Amino acid sequence: MINKIKSMIFSYVFVISKKPIKLSLLLEANQAILENMYLDGKKLGFRLKSNRAYIVFVILVNITMVPLGLMTHELFKVADCHLSIFLAIFITASIFAFFGLFKDWLKEEVGKQRIKQMWKLHFPLFPYEQYHIIVDEIYQDAIENNIQKQELERYLLDELSKKCNK
After folding, report:
1. Which of 48, 98, 111, 166 could form a disulfide with 39 if both were Cys (CB 3.0 to 4.6 A apart)?
2. CA 141 to the chain's CA centroid
3. How far apart are CA 112 and CA 114, in angstroms?
4. Residues 17/45, Cβ–Cβ less than 8 Å
């Protein structure tokens, strides 16, 4: 259920290219995920529609805040008005602060999905969950050994087959 909602949100909020990602860009993105770095949507073939992200965020905030407001209404009716004003300011500031985190989360999740999708294209015999760390290590070795981009795929597959046969 949650995955279905997430995919509906992603399809509404993002423009995702149907073109495949080059192997070198896929390996760079995999490395970025492993190092908890920022993913570049342009390289991975997706773009965030900010207006739609705002709409989704407002809907999600209302889904959580309206019931919370209804449950706490009686409490704040008898409470000091200064407390209500302070909480209103705090909640408003929190909502604006969380939008940036929401956008970052959206981009990271779509980036991961895109990487897993392209992984199946470039490495159909090596599942992402099992081999993404091993492939990153081999990619690091390829960078250190100055392997050219034209020879990178062959080098990766050769090294992967050596490591799998051990």
Report:
1. 111
2. 26
3. 5
4. yes
In 3-state terms, what secondary structure has residue 6? helix
Q: Where are the domains of the chain?
A: 2-122
Is residue 72 within 8 Å of residue 83, measured between CB atoms?
Answer: no
Return d(Cα 38, Cα 17) in angstroms, integer: 19
What b/e sequence results for 127-139 when a residue is b if at least 16 CB atoms lie within 10 Å of its CB, and e otherwise?
A: ebeebbeebbebb
Q: Cβ–Cβ contacts within 10 Å for residue 23, how many?
A: 17
C-alpha to C-alpha distance for 105 and 37, rounded to whole angstroms? 12
For 100-144, the pLDDT digits (tens) are 999 999 999 999 999 999 999 988 888 899 889 988 998 888 888
> How far is the first Cα of the chain from the last one, in angstroms, to the nearest whole number?
41
- Distance (Å, whole) CA 67 – CA 108: 29
Tokens of 19: 């073109």
Q: What is d(CA 56, CA 126) in angstroms, rounded to the nearest whole number? A: 36
Whole-prediction pTM: 0.81
User: Residue 76 burial by CB count (10 A; 0-12/13-18/19+): exposed, middle or buried?
Assistant: middle
Other beta carbons within 10 angstroms of residue 96's beta carbon come to 8
